[in-house]
Design goal:
With about 575 residues, the chain is an alpha+beta fold. The chain is about 35% helix and about 20% strand. The chain folds into two domains: about 55-105 and about 130-230, Alpha-Beta Complex (Penicillin-binding protein 2a (Domain 2)), CATH 3.90.1310.10; about 235-280 and about 290-555, DD-peptidase/beta-lactamase superfamily (Beta-lactamase). It has helices spanning about 15-40, 40-50, 95-105, 110-115, 120-125, 140-145, 170-175, 185-190, 190-195, 235-250, 290-295, 305-315, 350-355, 360-365, 370-380, 405-410, 420-430, 430-435, 460-470, 540, 545-555; strands at about 55-60, 65, 75-85, 130-135, 155-160, 200-205, 210-220, 225-230, 255-260, 265-275, 325, 330-335, 335-340, 345-350, 435-440, 455, 490-500, 500-515, 525-530. The strands form six sheets. Strands 2, 3, 4, 5 and 8 form a five-stranded mixed sheet that branches. Strands 10-9-19-18-17 form a five-stranded antiparallel sheet, with helices on both faces. The chain has a three-stranded antiparallel sheet with strand order 1-6-7, with no helix packed on it. The longest helix is centred in the N-terminal third of the chain and has 28 residues, at about 15-40.
C-alpha cells in the first residue's frame, strides 16, 4: 500500500482539472502551429532552412564573338575569376584579411569597409549578402585566394573582353565595361545580340560557406550571338599603317580613312587617329573613344564640286564642254569675293573639276535653282545619318534651300556652309562608281548586293566619272592619287577650319575621295587629315598619297585585274599638290 502524499502536494480537484486543461490547450496550440507552418505555410520554414545551407548563384553568359568578314576574331571573351564575399558568412582573421588584401591589391581597411557595407556601392543599395571584393583576377591570383580558405569568400566565373587587334579596330568595336556591357561602338550598338542571357544554379554550402554540391540548374545561360563585320582585317591594317604614316609625316592633329566596297557598300576599313588601346584604357581620354569618321562633322571643301556639276548636267543646263570664264581668278557676289588659288581663264565644265576652280563651280551653281542643288545634296545623304547603326552617328548639316542667299548657294557648291561626316562623303561617291545609284552602307557582312537608289542618270554619272579621272591625272589636282596599272578617279578637297564665327587662316582640313579601277570600281576610299602642319596642306599633296597606297594594296590583295598600263609614277609623300 502506497503511502499517502504530503498535504502540500495534494491539489484540489478544480485546480488539477484547470491545470490539465491549460496543458492540453498549450499542446493543441503547438500542434496547430506546427500543422500550420509545416502544412499550410511551409514555404517560410523551407526558405529559412535552405538559406542556411543552399544558395542560388548566377551563371554569367558567354558574350558573342565579333569577327571580320573572313572569320578572324576581333573581340573575344576570356573566362576570369572575381572575388566576392557573403558578409554574413565571412569569418576572416586579421592575418587572413591582410593576406587577401595583398593578393587582390586593396587595403585591409577597404575590405573591412566593403564587408561592413560602408562603401559607395553599398550606400547606393547593393545587396548585403553579396559584395564584390575584386573583379577579373588572373588565374594564378585566384588560385592563391582559394588557398587562404577564408569562410564566406568565394570566386565567381565571369568573362573579360579582349581585342586582339588593339587600337587598329578600337573605334569600330568600342569596348565593354567591367560587367561586360557594351559602352561604345559595335559592342554598344549590338549589345542585346552579343550579351546573351545569364543563367542560375542552386548549390549546397558547408558550414564555412564553401560550395560542396550542385543541386540543380535553374536556368542555363544562353550564349550571345557571334557577329561578322563587313571589315576586312588586312585592309584595316593597311589603312591604319598608311594613315598613321601620313599623320606623322604631315604633323597632322588627327586623321581618318574609310574604305567601302563599291559594289555592296560594306565598310571594309575605318580608322581614326589618334587611337587608343581598348585592352588598357587607363590613360584614355574621352575624345579618344570618339569615332570621328562617323560622329564628327566638317566642311568637305572641293570634294562637293562633282555633285554641283552632276546636278547641272542632270537638269540639262550644261554639258561637259560648256565653257565658263574664271578670269581674273575672282568672282564677287555682293560684298563677298570668291577666289581661285590659280588664274585659269576660260575653263570647260570638265576642267572646272580637273583644276578645282571655285569660281567655275560657283557660276555653275548660280545657274541652277537653289532647290536643284539642294535636291542632289539631300538625295546623296547629306543632312541625314547613313543608317550604319553606329551609336552617335552624326547627321551632318544641310540647311533648307529657302534660306540660301546667293553667296551661300555659291559657296555650297564647293563645300562651304555644309557639314558632313567622312562616312557620308565616302558613301556619296557611290553615285559615280555605281552609274548614278546611291548605295547603302553596312558595318555587317552582307551575303547579297543590296539595291541602290537611283539619283542621277547613267550618262550623268559616267560624265562626272570621266572628269574625276582627269583630276587624278597630270594637269589635275591629284596626280599623286595615281596607281600603277589602274585607272583612278577622285577629287581633292582643302578647306579652312571654322574658328569662332569665321575661318582660321592657317588651319586646314585636307581630303581626298576616289575609287578604282574606273572601268569596274571595286573600292571607294575617303581620306581626311586634320590640320597638317609640315608645310603641305592641299588635299592633293597630303591626302591623295594615302588614297594611292591604300587603294593599291587593297586592289592587289583582292587580285583585281589591271585596267591600265603599268606606267604610272610611284607616289612619294611630300610632293607639292595643286589647288584642292
Amino acid at each position: 500500500m502506497k503511502p499517502p502524499l504530503p498535504p502540500h502536494l495534494i491539489l484540489p480537484a478544480l485546480r488539477s482539472r484547470l491545470l490539465a486543461a491549460l496543458l492540453l490547450l498549450g499542446f493543441a496550440g503547438l500542434a496547430g502551429r506546427a500543422a500550420y507552418l509545416q502544412g499550410m505555410h511551409n514555404g517560410f520554414l523551407q526558405e529559412k532552412g535552405e538559406s542556411r545551407y543552399t544558395r542560388v548563384l548566377e551563371m554569367s553568359a558567354h558574350r558573342g564573338m565579333i569577327t571580320d568578314r573572313h572569320g578572324e576574331p576581333l573581340a573575344i571573351s576570356t573566362p576570369v575569376e572575381s572575388v566576392w564575399s557573403s558578409p554574413q558568412d565571412m569569418r576572416a582573421t586579421p592575418e587572413q584579411t591582410k593576406k587577401l588584401a595583398i593578393l587582390i591589391g586593396l587595403e585591409a581597411e577597404e575590405i573591412n569597409r566593403r564587408i561592413k557595407g560602408t562603401t559607395g556601392d553599398q550606400q547606393r543599395g547593393a545587396r548585403r549578402d553579396f559584395v564584390y571584393l575584386k573583379r577579373h583576377l588572373s588565374p594564378d591570383v585566384a588560385a592563391k585566394v582559394v588557398e587562404l580558405n577564408i569562410p564566406g569568400v568565394f570566386l565567381k566565373r565571369e568573362y573579360r573582353r579582349f581585342y586582339p587587334a588593339g587600337e587598329l579596330t578600337a573605334h569600330v568595336l568600342g569596348f565593354t565595361d567591367v560587367d561586360d556591357k557594351g559602352q561604345e561602338g559595335i559592342e554598344l550598338a549590338w549589345q542585346d545580340e552579343l550579351a546573351g542571357k545569364p543563367g542560375s544554379r542552386r548549390v549546397i554550402r558547408d558550414r564555412k560557406g564553401r560550395v560542396v554540391e550542385d543541386i540543380e540548374s535553374i536556368r542555363a545561360p544562353r550564349p550571345g550571338q557571334n557577329i561578322a563585320l563587313s571589315m576586312d582585317g588586312k585592309i584595316q591594317y593597311l589603312a591604319y599603317r598608311e594613315l598613321k604614316q601620313a599623320v606623322e609625316v604631315n604633323k597632322a592633329k588627327a586623321g581618318g580613312i574609310v574604305v567601302l566596297d563599291a559594289e555592296t557598300g560594306e565598310i571594309l576599313a575605318l580608322v581614326n587617329l589618334p587611337a587608343y588601346n581598348p585592352n588598357n584604357r587607363r590613360s584614355m581620354s574621352g575624345g579618344q573613344a570618339r569615332n570621328r569618321a562617323l560622329t564628327d562633322m566638317f566642311e568637305p571643301g572641293s570634294t562637293l564640286k562633282p555633285f554641283t556639276v552632276a546636278a547641272a548636267l542632270e537638269k540639262g543646263e550644261i554639258k561637259a564642254d560648256t565653257v565658263f570664264e574664271t578670269s581674273p581668278g575672282t568672282f564677287s557676289i555682293g560684298r563677298a569675293t570668291i577666289r581661285d588659288t590659280r588664274r585659269e581663264g576660260a575653263l570647260t565644265v570638265a576642267q572646272v573639276i580637273q583644276k578645282s576652280s571655285n569660281v567655275g563651280s560657283a557660276k555653275i551653281a548660280l545657274s541652277l535653282p537653289p532647290q536643284t542643288l539642294w535636291g542632289i545634296l539631300n538625295d546623296v545623304g547629306f543632312g541625314t545619318p547613313t543608317g550604319s547603326g553606329f551609336p552617335g552617328e552624326a547627321s551632318g548639316t544641310l540647311r533648307p534651300y529657302r534660306s540660301w542667299r546667293p553667296i551661300e548657294q555659291a559657296t555650297m557648291s564647293y563645300g562651304h556652309g555644309i557639314a558632313v561626316s567622312l562616312l557620308q562623303l565616302a558613301r556619296a561617291y557611290t553615285l559615280f562608281s555605281s552609274e548614278g545609284e546611291l548605295k547603302p552602307v553596312s558595318l555587317l557582312r552582307l551575303d547579297a548586293v543590296p539595291p541602290g537608289k537611283r539619283v542621277v542618270s547613267r550618262d550623268t554619272a559616267e560624265a562626272v566619272s570621266e572628269m574625276l579621272e582627269m583630276a587624278a591625272q597630270p594637269g589635275g589636282t591629284a596626280p599623286q592619287a595615281r596607281i600603277n596599272g589602274y585607272r583612278v578617279a577622285g577629287k581633292t578637297g582643302t578647306a579652312h577650319k571654322l574658328e569662332g564665327k569665321g575661318y582660321a587662316k592657317n588651319r586646314y582640313l585636307s581630303t581626298f575621295v576616289g575609287y578604282a579601277p574606273v572601268s569596274s570600281p571595286r573600292f571607294i576610299i575617303a581620306v581626311m587629315l586634320d590640320e597638317p602642319s609640315a608645310g603641305q596642306y592641299f588635299g592633293g599633296a597630303v591626302a591623295a598619297p594615302v588614297f594611292s597606297r591604300v587603294m593599291s594594296g587593297a586592289l592587289r590583295m583582292r587580285g583585281v585585274p589591271q585596267d591600265a598600263p603599268a606606267t604610272n609614277v610611284n607616289v612619294v609623300y611630300g610632293r607639292a599638290g595643286a589647288q584642292g
